[in-house]
## 1
Amino acid sequence: MAFVVTARWTVKEGHEREVEEAILGLVQPSRAEPGNLFYQANRDVDDPRVFFFYEVYADRAGYEAHGASEHFERLGHGTAIPLLESRERRFYDTYGPLEERAPC
């Protein structure tokens, strides 16, 4: 079972470029973390102040290691998060490989 995180960041007006640069700096080191299985940052096509993250970790400990990593402390907590209007996160456990699931 994997641990899935979705996050929606809404940036304060006028700080879009700073947050975008921080996010671009987070992608590669986050993907290289031992507990990370998938890390994708996205930007809303209709509202450039909104970013959406889809992240998959081997387990909750992998996610917690991500939050404590040097790059997330510096670029996430140190740069981007103080420039956000809102930050929403949701957490999920997967329940098995897709091929084992019945069609919806």
## 2
Amino acid sequence: MFFDSWGDLFRILIIGILAYGGLVLLLRATGKRTLSKMNAFDFIVTVALGSILATVLLSSEVSLSEGLFAFALLCLLQYAVAYASVRSGRFQSLVKADPSLVFFRGRFLHAMLKKERVTEEEVYAAVRAAGLADLDAVAAVVLETDGSISVVPAANEPEGEPAKASTLRHVQGRQEARAEAGLSA
């Protein structure tokens, strides 16, 4: 239970060094995007790479070559999905969700909070984490595609908010929130 053999530990040492080295080389070859968390698919790839590494290290039933092949396959799939997403809006909409506006100019957007399963308390926590103590200092709170929550301070919001420059341009619920606030979309 506490110790089986020195051979097992030696195997983990050698396989760990080789698998880690192989993973680092693959990540360098496929670029920064492979470990990003820009959307749910990216996050899944990151978790799966960790799972494969753990399996290769701890299971003597999985060979180093199988683990390296699994790493390469996931990196290739992630690269292909990112490549296709950049080149096709239709494909991008299949694999990536749009960010969602959950708070805008002093108002919680309850329909969007409910749809995204986010509580007001989670919005308050994000506002505090952004270093703001008052909701009047907040222009918008956005649930991003990776599940993180972004807070846009009111001081950063340009007067009149030109649509081309707005960081809220592709956010779900923006038009409804602006209409509710009496602003043009």
